[in-house]
């Protein structure tokens, strides 16, 4: 089993590369999820503004005879 982890003397480089890659992928996942959450919050805020503008426009619009 130790031969597998030592990988012919290159285990430190190989496992280190795996660790760096895993950390980078986790960081990208976290950044993507945060960005998605912020985009949803911004979308909800913009929809609320649009809805309030629509309701004000409907109240101000003159009624047709």
UniProtKB/TrEMBL annotation:
- Any idea what job this protein has? Required for the export of heme to the periplasm for the biogenesis of c-type cytochromes.
- The gene behind this protein is ccmD
Stated family: Belongs to the CcmD/CycX/HelD family.
Q: Which NCBIfam families match?
A: cytochro_ccmD
Q: How does it sit in the membrane?
A: Single-pass membrane protein
Pfam families the record matches: CcmD (PF04995)
Any idea what this protein is called?
Heme exporter protein D
Q: Which residues form the signal peptide?
A: none
Provide the alphabetized UniProt keywords.
Cell inner membrane, Cell membrane, Cytochrome c-type biogenesis, Membrane, Transmembrane, Transmembrane helix, Transport
UniProt entry tagged with the keyword Iron: no
Mind telling me which residue stretches traverse the membrane in this protein? 12-33
The organism's taxonomy opens as:
Bacteria, Pseudomonadati, Pseudomonadota, Alphaproteobacteria, Rhodospirillales
* Annotated compartments: Cell inner membrane
């Amino acid at each position: 089993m130790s031969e597998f982890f030592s990988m012919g003397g290159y285990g430190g480089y190989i496992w280190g590369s795996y660790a760096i890659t895993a950390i980078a992928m986790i960081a990208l996942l976290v950044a993507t999820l945060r960005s998605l959450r912020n985009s949803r919050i911004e979308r909800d805020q913009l929809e609320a503004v649009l809805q309030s503008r629509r309701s004000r426009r409907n109240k101000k619009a003159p009624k047709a005879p």
